[in-house]
Model the fold of this input.
Amino acid sequence: MALAAALRRLAHVRLAEYSRRTAAATSWLAGRRSFTAGTPPLRSDNKVTVHFVNRDGEKITVKGSPGDSLLDVVINEDLDFDGFGACEGTLACSTCHLIFDEDVYKNLGQITDEEMDMLDLAYGLTDTSRLGCQICLTKSLDGMVARVPESVADIRQSKDGSS
Done:
């Protein structure tokens, strides 16, 4: 019995101590509340420059954030590449097929079997072809050039070329 009473007193003392500490911490925080997430603002020096060459040969320069895929960049910058990214990056089509220079291609990282399977369906396939949804930007890719092939295999288009 004495042991049970001692444990109850100890629990009561600890609960009182916890309550006192919680109240002190809450009052300290009350004057310091902030609604920011603490994330630094996006600055242009955190961006990666990408040069796209569209089907007409026009060079379009945009910036993307490290970690974004090239498909994300095309969507975020509202670039008008007909049929580009039909599957929205789910690796179920080859409409985000891009062609790279050899030196850039070597820095893109490993290609997966799933990406290779989708590239097999792409028109104008080259040795340096990749899918834009599978290429994530890094600072080492800053200034890269990505060429959009002349045609795209988009199952959404009918045989006469209309949508």
